[in-house]
């Protein structure tokens, strides 16, 4: 049934869609990229994030020491030529541990946002596109999830699942599903009444085709912005969980746990707790800068 | 609101059921005989079907009965009630600080768009939303307690015992909680104010010769607050979540500390009680926000 409508409807829909979209699509993308590249703060953020990702990926090559290498004779040393950011209570190099800690932060960030994004986007698309009782059910479920503060929800999920890096990803991923579902649903509702969507429907495009070819492209912009903001939140949440001792367990370095252990030596070795905090701050700041730049670049009003 | 609350209760019940371990064993301890275990399980209704158990549990929750702590054996409701005022006070002061600073800065920033004040506020607001709450708390301790020695690094003094010491202890936790809110509200209220200032009625007010200050703070502010209040409402939940961490930083005896202690002791009834209470508070806040709209914009009515 649906294949027949597809064969009948497709040529017209694609021709219509192609005629409208093909000449515009490429220049629009170019214009957005160009606008983004002129956003100086966003470029600074992006630059920092690329450096961080490279450092995390090449940690074995770029770190001056090994992350678990202890040297009690140099414990709690201030920043120096040998140890740029000082050493911790086991004499481990803080710079090295921050570089390795970036791995956990970025991994958790990307996987958690990937999880939250995938489920949230699908739910949001279904909810916004089909409407009706399906929409009500999905959105009430999201309201229930939103009643639990994300960090509290993550803390409790960790308490039930037990502390491990995988569980941190799951906990943060679940906590941020509603954010994506809401943003996507809201955007679908503004895209749906557009004439080109109505035209495709009139031309006989089936539901899946409508969603994939006509609704999704309109939703991509807000999703991209949301991803960069959600990454910032996810990295903050991972740090918070590790800080509370509910995240990735020692001796694996994470920014949050370094900060928590460093707190005990705040009088004699403030750098121990300061530098991991600066790492979290700069990463989140970069993601926020990039998010701002993306939302300006994608703003159709400009 | 009622369906959402029911959903919240259901989620927490599922959490109760997913919690590892046997509650009867947790209450009786390791030396319990199978007979004793069976007796306690029967008394707690654990041998009934899930829907029945949910009914019993819900009836208890509606009467304020969240069960007893596995560790201290005290009623969970009592444990929460002694800690809740501490957290709520912290959250309210944090919200008030965040809202005053954030909205104030946002409005001033919008009124002087593209000036150095605007750029400064924008930059500071960005710092505010990027700052990990707990790290900001550590920075405050480093500055105000260790270097300047003005404020106590941690601890809590009840209001009735010594009001001055009480507020000295509240200042830094409230500041750490409020910074994110201040940052995000400054960003929102600036944009919202910029949009409002472009509206016709504002130009009319300017045109009839009103002082700029009156136009902004009397005419435009209320209108521009509508989207800001939405953010404020949404952030209150996040702020309560943040309180869990901030209380830990400042060794503050609120619900967050209760929760984290319960987690380390696997005291599930306390964990569930705290989660349920916090989620209910968030739902009630959303109701207050909805009511605030009707005051800000009399065109909105709720039946």
Summarize the model shown.
With 302 residues, chain A is an all-alpha fold.
What does this structure look like?
- The complex is a heterodimer of chains A (302) and B (303).
- Chain A is mainly α.
- Helix content of chain A is 77%, strand content 0%.
- In chain A, α4 crosses α8, α4 (94-130) packs antiparallel against α10 and α8 (177-191) runs antiparallel to α10.
- The longest helix of chain A has 37 residues, at 2-38.
- Helices cover 77% and strands 0% of the residues of chain B.
- In chain B, α10 (212-249) packs antiparallel against α12 (268-296).
- Chain B is elongated and about 85 Å long.
- Chain B starts with a helix and ends in a 7-residue tail after the last helix.
Q: List the uncertain runs of chain B.
A: none
Using the CA coordinates, give the radius of gyration of chain A: 23 Å
What is the SS-derived class of chain A? mainly alpha
Number of strands of chain A: 0
Number of helices of chain B: 12
Number of separate strands of chain B? 0
First and last CA, distance of chain B: 13 Å
Q: Low-confidence parts of chain A, pLDDT < 50 over ≥5 residues?
A: 1-24
Oligomer status:
heterodimer
Shape of chain A: elongated
């Amino acid at each position: 049934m649906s294949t027949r409508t597809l064969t009948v409807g497709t040529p017209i829909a694609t021709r219509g869609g192609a005629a409208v979209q093909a000449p515009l699509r490429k220049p629009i993308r170019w214009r957005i990229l160009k606008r983004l590249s002129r956003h100086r703060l966003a470029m600074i953020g992006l630059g920092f994030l690329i450096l961080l990702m490279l450092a995390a990926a090449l940690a074995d090559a770029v770190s001056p020491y090994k992350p678990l290498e202890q040297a009690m004779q140099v414990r709690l040393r201030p920043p120096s030529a040998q140890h740029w950011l000082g050493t911790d209570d086991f004499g481990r190099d803080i710079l090295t541990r921050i570089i390795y800690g970036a791995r956990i932060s970025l991994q958790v960030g990307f996987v958690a946002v990937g999880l939250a994004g995938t489920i949230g986007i699908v739910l949001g698309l279904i909810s916004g596109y089909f409407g009706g009782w399906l929409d009500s059910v999905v959105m009430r479920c999201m309201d229930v999830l939103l009643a639990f503060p994300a960090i509290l929800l993550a803390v409790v999920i960790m308490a039930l699942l037990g502390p491990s890096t995988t569980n941190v990803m799951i906990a943060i991923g679940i906590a941020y599903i509603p954010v994506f579902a809401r943003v996507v649903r809201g955007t679908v509702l503004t895209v749906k009444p557009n004439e080109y969507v109505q035209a495709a429907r009139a031309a006989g495009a089936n539901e899946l085709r409508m969603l994939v070819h006509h609704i999704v492209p309109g939703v991509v912009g807000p999703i991209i912005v949301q991803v960069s903001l959600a990454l910032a939140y996810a990295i903050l949440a991972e740090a918070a969980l590790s800080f509370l001792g509910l995240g990735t367990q020692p001796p694996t370095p994470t920014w949050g746990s370094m900060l928590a252990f460093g707190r005990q030596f705040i009088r004699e070795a403030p750098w121990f707790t300061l530098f991991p905090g600066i790492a979290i701050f700069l990463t989140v700041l970069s993601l926020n800068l990039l998010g701002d730049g993306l939302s300006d670049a994608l703003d159709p009003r400009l | 609101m009622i369906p959402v609350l029911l959903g919240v209760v259901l989620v927490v019940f599922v959490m109760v059921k997913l919690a590892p371990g046997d509650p009867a064993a947790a209450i009786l301890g390791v030396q319990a005989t199978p007979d004793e275990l069976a007796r306690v399980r029967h008394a707690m209704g654990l041998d009934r079907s899930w829907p029945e158990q949910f009914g019993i549990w819900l009836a208890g929750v509606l009467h304020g009965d969240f069960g007893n702590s596995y560790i201290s054996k005290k009623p969970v409701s009592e444990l929460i009630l002694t800690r809740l005022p501490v957290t709520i006070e912290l959250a309210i002061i944090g919200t008030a600080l965040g809202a005053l600073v954030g909205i104030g800065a946002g409005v001033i920033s919008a009124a002087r768009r593209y000036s150095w004040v605007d750029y400064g506020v924008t930059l500071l607001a960005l710092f505010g939303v990027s700052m990990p709450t707990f790290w900001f708390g550590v920075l405050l301790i480093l500055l105000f307690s260790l270097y300047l020695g003005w404020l106590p690094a941690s601890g809590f003094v009840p209001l009735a015992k010594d009001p001055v010491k009480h507020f000295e202890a509240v200042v830094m936790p409230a500041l750490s909680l409020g910074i994110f809110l201040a940052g995000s509200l400054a960003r929102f209220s600036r944009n919202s104010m910029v949009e409002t200032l472009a509206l016709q009625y504002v130009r009319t007010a300017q045109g009839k010769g009103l002082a700029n200050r009156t136009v902004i703070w009397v005419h435009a502010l209320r209108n521009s607050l509508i989207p800001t209040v939405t953010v404020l409402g949404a952030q209150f939940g996040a702020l309560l979540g943040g309180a869990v961490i901030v209380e830990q930083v400042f060794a503050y005896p609120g619900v967050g500390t209760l929760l984290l202690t319960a987690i380390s002791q696997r005291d599930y009834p306390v964990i569930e009680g705290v989660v349920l209470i916090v989620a209910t508070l968030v739902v009630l806040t959303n109701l207050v926000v909805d009511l605030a709209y009707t005051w800000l914009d009399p065109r909105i009515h709720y039946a």
